[in-house]
Specification:
Elements lengths: L1 E5 L4 H12 L3 E6 L18 E5 L5 H10 L2 E4 L6 H6 L1 H21 L3 E7 L26 H22 L3 E6 L2 E2 L10 H10 L4 E4 L5 E3 L1 E2 H13 L6 E5 L4 E3 H12 L5 E4 L1 H4 L15 H7 L7 H13 L1
Parallel strand pairs: 1-2, 1-4, 2-3, 4-5, 5-6, 6-11, 7-10, 8-13
Antiparallel strand pairs: 9-12
Helix pairs in contact: 1-7, 2-4, 4-5, 6-8, 6-11, 8-11
The structure holds uridine-5'-diphosphate.
Amino acid sequence: MVSLITGGAGFVGSHLTESLLKKGHKVIIVDNLSTGKLENIKHLRDNPDLSVHIDTILNEPLMTELIQECDVVYHLAAAVGVRLIIENPVETIETNIIGTEIVLKLANRYKKRTLIASTSEVYGKSDNIPFQEDNDSVFGPTIKSRWSYACSKAIDEFLGLAYYHEKKLPIIIARLFNTVGPRQTGRYGMVVPNFVQQALLKHPITVFGDGKQSRCFTNVSDVVWGLQELMKKEEAIGQVFNIGTGDEITIEDLAKLVKEMTESDSEIQYIPYDEAYVSGFEDMRRRVPDITKISNYIGYSPQIDLRTTIQQIIEYYKK
Ligand code: UDP
């Protein structure tokens, strides 16, 4: 089995690559290293079953070749991270929409099963907790650039489902909820790697807003397991799935937990959203997935708790 992974040198992509190679699959990566890093796949580079193309998914001739070579496509390449999205809105919208358009058009030409990695951002600021796959999306106004990310990923989902219904392309959509683990960078704002690095460097741990907002953090290995099982499941085709955990923690408690586990004497500093991001920034208060559907389809049940995950990230950064 040959898997093409767009964004394969990224945080989730590199873990997926590693897992597929371990199972004896062949993997083709295409990654433009915008947020991915060669460092993430350095330990895999000698594996004869891996081929790596440092290029953009917007390169249609290359993508035409690669999609013909593979059996299935994991489409993970996207602009991610709230900070990146606010700083580079054009790139976000173009990568997410035009890139996905190219991947789906070619996947359809050669009828290759495609899994689209989407995001819990598509629920927007809905307060209908826990989020079920068929719930409404609630987005803010277009003058707030944060929502362009949610909208661009929602368009990806619409397009994927349109290809499924209209052209019978086998499509699966997975909405990832705050995936965390080793190799995730804090550079684009992600909270867990940020807190761990701050605590280890004895810098202040920066909690944005009042810290009472909460998230459910999922270990990347649980996510990667889920993606592979969904890809195998015939009944998953044409469906949307949440991948996450129901274990909720406030950002303030996360800061305290990281401080305790790193035995750091960093102070916990509260920074208003306007200063942390941009004026008028809108954050989600809570974000909790309902994982009943994915549990029913593939027996998904997250195996790794937050403490273990934070420990893995601490060890990663200490190295
Ligand atoms: N956050 C924080 N300090 C940081 C980075 C993020 O308090 O240094 C907050 C952020 O405002 C949000 C939560 O942590 O409420 C999760 O942020 P992240 O960017 O990791 O993911 P999001 O859920 O926003 O996609």
